[in-house]
Design a protein that fits this description.
Layout lengths: L1 H13 L2 H22 L15 H5 L1 H7 L7 H16 L8 E6 L9 E5 L4 E6 L27 E11 L2 E8 L8 H4 L2 E2 L7 H7 L16 H8 L4 E5 L3 H6 L8 H12 L1
Parallel strand pairs: 1-7
Antiparallel strand pairs: 1-2, 2-3, 4-5, 4-7, 5-6
Helix pairs in contact: 5-10
Length: 268
């Protein structure tokens, strides 16, 4: 016992606690570097992404919603429901049973447009979808509300009227977020079909072709999608972009209670 006490005293004198802390810190730093080395770049879009809300995880109805839609990121669904609830509260949504999510956290080589039936929690149709030519190559990571930027704009839109234009049957979109996408109509950002949105183009180029900022769709799907969502439904273009999160007024009051309310109203 006496020898053990002498040994402990020796440790305190010659190996103080701050050295122990420093030693542990170096090990943790090395471990962190090793972890960072194997995390794919696509997982690091938003270093400020919110942590899982423990209250949200306990709400069965909401949690069920967030996990119902295969192929769409959980955060995209959470944000979409929050903005949808805000637009519903303002009385702006006319087609209340559907919402369209364009998930730009995915590369252009994957299907990333989803039309969802909110009542039965089913994906009605999914599709490839192009982003703006100046938003990036295969991945969209730059966004703008400015004319002639040829970049996509994030955020919430309401679908409006259809027309026949340079790309045939097309759908006008009205951005609902000031400074983020409210110039969409002036910019001519619409939904339309395009030859460069196809698996053949992907096989030849390694990515989709790109638009001037429009969410362009494949020629074999665009008419069906437009007919399904036209006339006042909610469309949400998602990306885990921290600048968008910081400035979106529609996501400002996103909370467990707000999501619970919208899910309850859908289920009624």
């Amino acid at each position: 016992m006496r020898k053990r006490s002498i040994f402990l005293i020796w440790l305190v004198i010659f190996f103080p606690l701050n050295n122990l802390t420093s030693f542990g810190g170096d090990v943790n730093n090395n471990a962190t570097k090793n972890i960072q080395a194997v995390v794919p770049t696509s997982a690091l879009f938003d270093i400020d992404a919110p942590l899982e809300d423990p209250l949200l995880a306990q709400n069965t109805d909401i949690n069920d919603y967030l996990h119902s839609f295969s192929g769409i990121s959980e955060d995209a669904v959470k944000c979409a429901l929050a903005g949808y609830a805000a637009l519903m509260e303002k009385g702006k949504v006319l087609k209340k049973d559907i919402i369209t999510i364009v998930d730009f956290s995915k590369p252009s080589t994957e299907e990333r447009l989803f039309v969802i039936n909110l009542k039965n929690k089913k994906v009605m149709i999914k599709s490839l979808c192009a982003h703006g030519r100046n938003s990036g190559e295969n991945w969209a990571d730059k966004f703008s509300n400015a004319a002639e930027s040829y970049e996509s704009s994030l955020g919430f839109y309401l679908t409006s009227e259809t027309y026949s234009g340079a790309h045939g049957y097309s759908l006008k979109l009205d951005g609902q977020e000031n400074g983020i996408n409210d110039k969409a109509r002036d910019r001519g950002v619409v939904m339309h079909g395009a030859e460069y949105v196809s698996n053949a183009f992907i096989n030849a180029q390694g990515r989709l072709g790109r638009s001037q900022g429009c969410p362009a769709l494949p020629l074999d799907k665009y008419e069906k999608v437009i007919s399904m969502i036209k006339g006042g439904s909610c469309l949400f273009i998602y990306h885990p972009d921290k600048n968008y999160r910081a400035h979106s007024q529609l996501l400002k009051h996103c909370s467990e209670s707000a999501l619970a309310e919208v899910v309850a109203s859908i289920n009624r």
